[in-house]
TrEMBL record:
<dbReference type="InterPro" id="IPR016162">
    <property type="entry name" value="Ald_DH_N"/>
</dbReference>
<dbReference type="Pfam" id="PF00171">
    <property type="entry name" value="Aldedh"/>
</dbReference>
<feature type="active site">
    <location>
        <position position="245"/>
    </location>
</feature>
<dbReference type="InterPro" id="IPR016160">
    <property type="entry name" value="Ald_DH_CS_CYS"/>
</dbReference>
<keyword id="KW-0560">Oxidoreductase</keyword>
<dbReference type="InterPro" id="IPR016161">
    <property type="entry name" value="Ald_DH/histidinol_DH"/>
</dbReference>
<dbReference type="InterPro" id="IPR029510">
    <property type="entry name" value="Ald_DH_CS_GLU"/>
</dbReference>
<comment type="similarity">
    <text>Belongs to the aldehyde dehydrogenase family.</text>
</comment>
<dbReference type="InterPro" id="IPR015590">
    <property type="entry name" value="Aldehyde_DH_dom"/>
</dbReference>
<protein>
    <submittedName>
        <fullName>Aldehyde dehydrogenase family protein</fullName>
    </submittedName>
</protein>
<feature type="domain" description="Aldehyde dehydrogenase">
    <location>
        <begin position="16"/>
        <end position="470"/>
    </location>
</feature>
<dbReference type="InterPro" id="IPR016163">
    <property type="entry name" value="Ald_DH_C"/>
</dbReference>
Length: 474
C-alpha cells in the first residue's frame, strides 16, 4: 500500500505524520495519507505565488491550450481516476466514471470560456477612456468536501487557473487521492509546477492553516454550514472574499398534473445518487394529496428493489463515506418527526454488508415540517415527505428551511412552473427535471444557510477575479 503525499510545486511532499485512508466498503485501510499542516501550506502558497506571476502574464489562448491538454489527460486516465474515487468515497464505479468525465468537462469548459472573457469599456466622453480589467487574486485556496472530490476540485481549480490564479487545494481528509492525481496531470499537461498544489491532511490542521494564510487572496469552500462559518470568519479577519457552498435540504414539489413516472424516477435518483451524500440531494418530497399514494408507492417499489454493495460491484447504492457518517444518518431514525416509516430506516441486512458503512434507502412520510428530519441535512439516502393541497402551501413548505440550494417543480402546467421558479427560495430551480446532469455550465450556489457566491458556469470567472477600472485622460 502506498502513501498519498501532498503535491507542491510539482513534487510529492511527505509530512512527518500520516493517517489511514479507510475503505468505507470494508473498514480496511487503503493506504496512508500525509498529514500536512502549516509548513506544507506555507510551502504551497509560497511556490504558488512565485509561479503565478508568470502564469498571469500568459495569453488566455495559452492557458486555454494547457487546460485543454489537461482535460485530455483526465480522459486518458479516466478509468484509473474513477477506481480511486470509487474506493475512497464508496460510490458505485459508474457514478465515479461520470465524475471523471465531468472533471474533464470543467477543464474544457473553462478552457473555452477564458478565450471570450472580456472587460468593459465605459463611455465617459471624448476626453476620457475608461475600461475594466478582470484580474486574478494571486494564490487562491479551496477547501473541499468528500462527496464529489474530482468534480469539486476541477470546478474550482479550472476557473481559478484559467483566470490566471495559482491554486492550493485541501481535499477532504477521507478522499485525497484523486486531487493529487489531477494536480499531477496538470503538470504533465504543461501547466507550470506551483500553479496547482494539493496539501493533504485534516481540516483542523491543513484546512485551518490554508484559510489563515496571509498569502491566500480568495477562499472557496465546499462543506458543512458549521465549518463554512469558521472559514468566513477566518476570511473576514484578513478581509479576503469567499465563496461558500454549504448544505441543503432541497425539495421536489410534485403536483397532481405531473408525469408521476418521470417524477418518481427523479425523486429516487435525486436521493440515491452518491448514497444521498450530495449537497443538492432531493431530500424532501412535497406531494399533492391527490397523487401521494401513487407516487409514494412508486418510490417505495424502487427503494425495495435497490441493489446495494461496494462501489467496485457498481450496483445502485454504495456505502456512505465512513462509519461516522453511517452513525450520523442512523441517529436521524431515533426521531421521525411524527412521520411514518414506509421503507428502510436501518442498515441493510446481509453478511457481506456488515463491515461497510451502508444504509438502506429510506422514505418517511407525513413528517412535521418543523421537525428535525424535515429541517436538517441528513446526507444519506433518506427522504422526508409531506403532503399539500394548495399551491401556496407547497411553496411555503418548500421555503420553510434555513437552506436554499435546489428545488424542483413537477407539473404539466408551464405557467405554474415559471410562477414557482420565481417564488421558490433556492439557487437553482428545475421544472420537470432534477439536476440537469450536474450542469457544468449552470451557475450554482445557495441562498440562506446554503452559502453565497457562485461557482460553475461563467459566474465562476467573476468569482475568481477582481475588477480593475482604468481611466485614461486623452
Ligand atoms: P466539513 O465541513 O466537515 O468538511 C469539508 C472540508 O472542510 C474538508 O476538507 C475538511 O477537512 C475541511 N475542514 C473541516 N474543518 C475545518 C476547519 N476548521 N478549517 C478549515 N477546513 C476545515 O463537511 P463534510 O462533513 O466533510 O461534508 C459534508 C457537507 O458538505 C454537507 O453538509 C454537504 O451539504 C456539504 N456539501 C456542500 C456542497 C455544495 O456545493 N453546496 C457540495 C458538497 C458537500
Amino acid at each position: 500500500m502506498t502513501t498519498t503525499h501532498s503535491f507542491i510545486a510539482g513534487q510529492d511532499v511527505a509530512s512527518a505524520d500520516t493517517y489511514d485512508n479507510i475503505d468505507p466498503a470494508t473498514g480496511q485501510s487503503l493506504g496512508a495519507v500525509s498529514r500536512g499542516g502549516a509548513a506544507e501550506v506555507d510551502q504551497a502558497v509560497t511556490s504558488g505565488a512565485a509561479a503565478q506571476r508568470e502564469w498571469a502574464r500568459t495569453t488566455p489562448e495559452h492557458r486555454s491550450d494547457r487546460l485543454t491538454a489537461w482535460a485530455a489527460l483526465v480522459d486518458r486516465d479516466a478509468e484509473e481516476l474513477a477506481r480511486l474515487e470509487s474506493e475512497d468515497t464508496g460510490k458505485p464505479l459508474s457514478q465515479a466514471r461520470t465524475d471523471s468525465t465531468v472533471a474533464a468537462r470543467y477543464l474544457r469548459f473553462y478552457a473555452h470560456a477564458i478565450d471570450s472573457y472580456y472587460g468593459l469599456t465605459i463611455p465617459k466622453g471624448p476626453d476620457l477612456h475608461a475600461y475594466t480589467l478582470r484580474e486574478p487574486f494571486g494564490v487562491v485556496g479551496s477547501v473541499i468536501a468528500w462527496n464529489y472530490p474530482m468534480q469539486l476540485f476541477s470546478r474550482s481549480v479550472a476557473a481559478a487557473v484559467a483566470t490566471g490564479n495559482a491554486s492550493v487545494v485541501k481535499p477532504a481528509d477521507e478522499t485525497p487521492r484523486t486531487a493529487v492525481a489531477l494536480a499531477r496531470l496538470a503538470v504533465e499537461a504543461g501547466i507550470p509546477a506551483g500553479i496547482v498544489n494539493v496539501v493533504t491532511g485534516t481540516g483542523a490542521e491543513a484546512g485551518a492553516a490554508l484559510t489563515a494564510h496571509p498569502g491566500v487572496g480568495h477562499l472557496s469552500f465546499v462543506g458543512s454550514t458549521e465549518v463554512g462559518s469558521l472559514i468566513a470568519h477566518a476570511a473576514a479577519e484578513r478581509v479576503v472574499p469567499t465563496v461558500l457552498e454549504l448544505g441543503g435540504k432541497s425539495a421536489q414539489l410534485v403536483f397532481a398534473d405531473a408525469d408521476l413516472t418521470a417524477a418518481s424516477e427523479a425523486v429516487v435518483r435525486g436521493v440515491l445518487q452518491n448514497a444521498g451524500q450530495t449537497c443538492s440531494a432531493g431530500s424532501r418530497l412535497i406531494v399533492h394529496r391527490d397523487v401521494q399514494d401513487e407516487l409514494l408507492d412508486l418510490v417505495v417499489q424502487r427503494f425495495r428493489t435497490t441493489t446495494i454493495g461496494p462501489g467496485s460491484e457498481d450496483l445502485d447504492l454504495g456505502p456512505l463515506v465512513s462509519a461516522k457518517q453511517q452513525q450520523r444518518v442512523e441517529g436521524f431514525m431515533d426521531d421521525l418527526a411524527g412521520g411514518e416509516l414506509l421503507v428502510g430506516g436501518s442498515r441493510p441486512e446481509g453478511e457481506h454488508l456488515s463491515a461497510g458503512a451502508y444504509f438502506s434507502p429510506t422514505l418517511v412520510h407525513g413528517v412535521d415540517p418543523q421537525g428535525r428530519l424535515a429541517q436538517e441535512e441528513v446526507f444519506g439516502p433518506v427522504i422526508a415527505s409531506m403532503t399539500f393541497d394548495e399551491e401556496d402551501e407547497a411553496v411555503a413548505l418548500a421555503n420553510s428551511t434555513a437552506y436554499g440550494l435546489l428545488a424542483a417543480v413537477w407539473t404539466d402546467n408551464l405557467s405554474r412552473g415559471h410562477r414557482l421558479a420565481s417564488a421558490l427560495r433556492a439557487g437553482q430551480v428545475f421544472v420537470n427535471n432534477y439536476g440537469a446532469g450536474g450542469g457544468v455550465e449552470l451557475p450554482f450556489g445557495g441562498w440562506g444557510k446554503s452559502g453565497y457566491g457562485r461557482e460553475k458556469g461563467y459566474e465562476a470567472l467573476d468569482a475568481f477575479t477582481q475588477t480593475k477600472t482604468v481611466v485614461v485622460k486623452l
